[in-house]
Amino acid sequence: MKSYVQRFVFCCLIVACIGISGPALASQWMMAHGNAAVIEYPSNCSYHYYGWGLDLTQNSGQWNWIHIPIPTKYWGAKARYLLLKFYRGSADALVSQIDVYNGNEKVKVFTTVSSSVGWNSKIFDLGSLMTFSRGCSVSIKIGAGVESMSHRFIFSTAGAKFEP
């Protein structure tokens, strides 16, 4: 009889502690591979999709948009930070703008996208928590100069850090 009482008291304490503190919720990064990317003007480049991402070479003197949908946790999910992992082949391969969308609504534009030649992992601060009730996506404007340099880009990851 005593063990049943002890178990009952123990269970009541556990339930009380969970009820008082609530469930532990943490922020969570949701990521998409670059192979989910869509090229807006495929005739402006040569490209190949791999299991790990998108590898493309932009035609000299041309520009393009690369669109990557980000898995969104639930209707009304909130995020403040976005992550983009990409490669630039040279100083003549430019990432000039990043647009952030909630469904069909543009909610943020980054026009100063400083990045180095080679691999870049960049986190973009949206400035405050933004609600994504229709899905989150990023559009990346790329361009190639006219110099005889590499105009190669690789997009491997895009993501958002969703808050509880």
What can be said about this structure in brief?
This protein has 164 residues and is mainly beta. The protein is built from 1 helix and 11 strands; from the N terminus they run αβββββββββββ. The strands form 2 sheets. Strands 1, 3, 4, 6, 9 and 11 form a 6-stranded antiparallel sheet that branches.
Key structural traits:
mainly beta; six-stranded antiparallel sheet; five-stranded antiparallel sheet; elongated
Strand residues, percent: over 45%
- How far apart the termini lie comes to 43 Å
Report the mean per-residue pLDDT as an integer.
88
| Number of strand segments | 11
- Biggest beta sheet summary: 6 strands, antiparallel
Q: Low-confidence stretches at least 5 residues in length (pLDDT < 50)?
A: 4-24
Structural class: mainly beta
Topology order in helix (H) and strand (E) letters = HEEEEEEEEEEE
Gyration radius from CA atoms, angstroms: 22 Å
Number of helices: 1
- How does the overall form come out from the CA principal axes? elongated
- Helical content stands at 10-25%
